[in-house]
Design a protein that fits this description.
The protein is of the alpha+beta class. The chain contains five helices and six strands, in the order βββαββαβααα. The radius of gyration is 20 Å and the shape is globular.
């Protein structure tokens, strides 16, 4: 029972695997923005009483294993993380100071899965995600252009 947390009348362990992407899956999460977003996500999660147990930010998507109290809806936490992080990026990297809602960074949807007893398996998956993406990129070889005789045979 060492992983369980407590609220005033509840003992709980609610962990979720969450994935979300930048708008149009653009590879916008590079360099300084990518390095700083990890700290931003951790601070925002802490403000909601959540804890990011594992996370990895790739150029075109974000993976995280997050512990969310049962009193909070997953959708509200994800919306909060995406919204506030978009505002942070706009203000600190795009120099937009006022009245910016951050609507241009993240796509609307997200993926969520309950983790249950497979937390360690999900943790390893997230840690190895960048290596796996690089491996899959290498497997995708460009197709040679078809000649007229190839088209006739098909």
């Amino acid at each position: 029972m060492e992983d369980y947390q407590s609220l005033s009348h509840t003992k709980w362990q609610c962990k979720y695997h969450i994935i979300f992407i930048p708008k149009c899956r653009r590879r916008t999460l590079f360099g300084v923005v990518r390095r700083e977003l990890g700290g931003v996500f951790h601070r925002l999660a802490e403000q909601k009483g959540c804890r990011i147990e594992e996370g990895h930010i790739l150029p075109d998507h974000v993976h995280m294993l997050i512990s969310i109290p049962p009193k909070l809806a997953v959708s509200s936490v994800v919306g909060y993380l995406k919204g506030k992080s978009a505002i942070h990026v706009a203000r600190h990297f795009l120099k937009r100071e006022r009245n910016y809602a951050g609507q241009q960074l993240w796509a609307r949807g997200y993926f969520v899965d309950t983790v249950g007893r497979d937390a360690e398996k999900i943790r390893r998956y997230i840690q190895n995600q960048e290596i796996e993406d690089q491996r899959l990129d290498q497997l995708e070889l460009p197709h040679p252009p078809q000649t007229k005789t190839d088209r006739k045979q098909n």
